From TrEMBL:
Coiled-coil ranges from the UniProt annotation: none
GO cellular component terms, semicolon-separated: cytoplasm; cytosol; nucleus
Name the record gives this protein: Protein kinase domain-containing protein
Keywords: ATP-binding, Kinase, Nucleotide-binding, Transferase
Protein's UniProt keywords contain DNA repair: no
Any GO molecular function: eukaryotic translation initiation factor 2alpha kinase activity
Source organism per UniProt: Selaginella moellendorffii
Domain Protein kinase: 8-251
């Protein structure tokens, strides 16, 4: 029998993504509830392992807590990777879709703190979106899904050997961090301009917001905020603020 079946009692399926299924399970030994992500390895194990390897290096109050990971060979061939992590009760996507949901006031601040921590470690998340932002029982924000995250190795000091593709220039790193900042800008806009699920304008409003065009009445009522969001969405990446600068500007 497999470690997954032996050690966990399945409670229910929590979600399904492009590359995996996430289950809510109880660990038979410690009695706690966890989210266990099961990823079927199609091509190379190395790229799937990367998600676990990245998450395992992170310890921050606003990042989904990693417990362990392992892989299992399947009877029919192929293999499955499991990542055992902290169970989160809801996602920002669920909250944004529920007009009655109260989104914690600290949420954005906590999200930027998670991103500041990642960027300090030269890690780019690359998939910051409401569906990958979670909340625990205490309504603390937890950034998750490191399936697309990348750790940048910076250029070694003079004299060091430079491999191809291995290292990136500081400029390149800044450039990629700026994509995470763009996502933060879109989330800050959505948090402050909530749509009801039946609002068909949502998609077109979000599409226009990407170019820094916000609904007129909203813009008039939120001038300062609109400018702040626009700076995060700036078409010139190098002019976008860093996570630390955003934090310093928050009330
Ligand atoms: P996608 O590529 O669509 O973002 P994915 O395959 O990368 O998905 P995840 O985003 O990690 O997988 O998880 C898929 C879904 O499982 C999430 O959208 C969410 O509903 C649920 N989920 C993931 N992690 C947790 C968690 N720690 N606690 C509770 N639910 C979770
Ligand atoms: Mg996801
Ligand atoms: Mg993913």
């Amino acid at each position: 029998n497999t470690k997954f079946n032996e050690e966990f009692t399945l409670i229910k399926q929590l979600g399904r993504g492009a590359d995996g299924v996430v289950y809510m399970c109880r660990h038979k030994f410690d009695g706690q509830v966890y989210a266990v992500k099961q990823i079927h390895v199609r091509k190379d194990l190395e790229s799937v392992m990367k998600e676990a390897r990245t998450l395992s290096t992170l310890a921050h109050a606003n990042i989904v807590k990693y417990h362990t990971s392992w892989w299992e060979e399947q009877p029919g061939g192929g293999c499955v990777v499991y990542i055992q992590m902290q169970y989160c009760t809801s996602s920002l996507k669920d909250m944004l879709e529920d007009p009655k949901a109260l989104i914690p006031v600290a949420a954005f601040n906590e999200l930027v703190q998670a991103v500041e921590y990642l960027h300090e470690k030269k890690i780019i998340h690359r998939d910051i979106a409401p569906k990958n932002i979670f909340f625990d029982d205490y309504n603390r924000l937890k950034l998750g899904d490191f399936g697309l995250a990348k750790k940048k190795l910076s250029l070694p000091r003079e004299g060091g050997k430079v491999g191809t593709g291995m290292y990136s220039s500081p400029k390149q790193l800044e450039n990629e961090m700026a994509s995470d900042i763009f996502s933060l800008g879109m989330i800050l806009f959505e948090l402050n301009c909530r749509f009801s699920p039946e609002n068909q304008d949502r998609d077109s409003t979000m599409q226009l917001a990407k170019d820094g065009i916000f609904p007129k009445e909203w813009e008039i009522a939120n001038q300062e905020l609109a400018e702040k969001i626009r700076s995060m969405l700036h078409p010139n990446r190098s002019l976008r603020p860093t996570a630390s600068q955003i934090l310093a500007s928050l009330p």
